[in-house]
UniProtKB/TrEMBL annotation:
Transmembrane segments: none annotated. Residues 2-241 form the ABC transporter domain. Keywords: Amino-acid transport, ATP-binding, Cell membrane, Membrane, Nucleotide-binding, Translocase, Transport. InterPro entries: AAA+_ATPase, ABC_transporter-like_ATP-bd, ABC_transporter-like_CS, MetN_ABC, MetN_ABC_transporter-like, P-loop_NTPase. This is Methionine ABC transporter ATP-binding protein. PROSITE patterns: ABC_TRANSPORTER_1 (PS00211), ABC_TRANSPORTER_2 (PS50893). One of its GO terms (molecular function) is ATP binding. Gene3D superfamilies: P-loop containing nucleotide triphosphate hydrolases (3.40.50.300).
Length: 257
């Protein structure tokens, strides 16, 4: 579903050129919940953002659902991005719009008429169990409710892929469980492939079936979570395999294990 091949992305900094992502190749299959973990500054968010070309790699190839994104025209890329949803740590809702208008926004851009937009918004809000907030403004919602609205918005155009950048880092553990339950649900029921950047090992244990560990811009190891014979190489992966699955109950047991 997603092939990243030899991705390189650097930034100019006062200290010189920084290789935030340095020759990374990964393959993500349809239906995966693929975790990208690593310490702060490892390059996780930058790598995630290359998948929809929010960050254009300096070199390397990004292929999503068979299409090489860098080769598309502006219009084709806009179209293709509709099949790649994204959510963020700080939700990125438009505060001057109601929940309805936030979720309807991508549908309007996709050219849907009013009746289609209403139907689409109602469907997505009901999948996320937040239909009762349709007329509320984001300021009146809790962090967990805001993230559920953001997820509803991200799936409004029926994407094939959902990119999640630290989706639970701004909420408490109970709310994290609720958000994970909804992410697991849209993966299972709607068949949406999920890529998730997180520093929370409980989140990875609860929903990821595959994991890549990043350090200093490179992938130092990748593995399947249900491989009980796997011997972790990095410190962070060793930690990942050690502890209990805190959110297992919320997502209905180990999702892929
Ligand atoms: N636009 C930018 N300009 C300059 N440097 C950047 C830019 N974006 C990221 N970086 C740098 O690239 C490196 C990787 O950043 P990135 O945000 O991808 O890491 P991360 O693993 O997601 O870290 P965190 O968990 O702290 O967000 C960091 O050193 C960061 O400071």
């Amino acid at each position: 579903m997603i092939s990243l091949r030899h991705i390189y992305k650097s930034f100019d900094t006062p200290a010189g050129t920084l290789a935030a992502v340095n020759n990374v190749s990964i393959e993500i299959e349809k239906g995966d919940i693929y975790g990208i973990i690593g310490f702060s500054g490892a390059g996780k968010s930058t790598l995630l953002r290359t998948i929809n070309l929010l960050e254009r790699p300096d070199s390397g190839t990004v292929i999503v659902d068979g299409k090489q994104l860098a080769e598309l025209s502006k219009g084709q890329l806009r179209q293709e991005r509709q099949s790649i949803g994204m959510i963020f740590q700080h939700f990125h809702l438009l505060n001057n719009l109601t929940v309805f208008d936030n979720v309807a926004f991508p549908l309007k851009i996709a050219g849907m008429n009013k009746a289609e937009r209403r139907k689409g918004v109602e469907e997505c809000l009901s999948i996320l169990d937040i239909a009762d907030k349709i007329d509320a403004y984001p300021a009146k919602l809790s962090g967990g409710q805001k993230q559920r609205v953001a997820i509803a918005r991200s799936i409004a155009n029926h994407p094939k892929v959902l990119l999640c950048d630290e989706p639970t880092s701004s909420v408490d553990p109970q709310t994290t469980g609720d958000i994970l339950k909804h992410l697991a649900h849209i993966n299972r029921r709607l068949g949406i492939t999920i890529v998730i950047v997180t520093h929370e090992m409980d989140v990875v244990r609860a929903i990821c079936n595959k994991v890549a560990v990043m350090e200093h811009g490179v992938i130092v190891e990748d593995f399947e979570m249900n491989n009980s014979n796997y011997v972790p190489k990095s410190k962070i992966a060793s930690y990942l395999f050690k502890s209990e699955n805190f959110y297992a109950e919320e997502v209905g047991g180990s999702l892929h294990g």
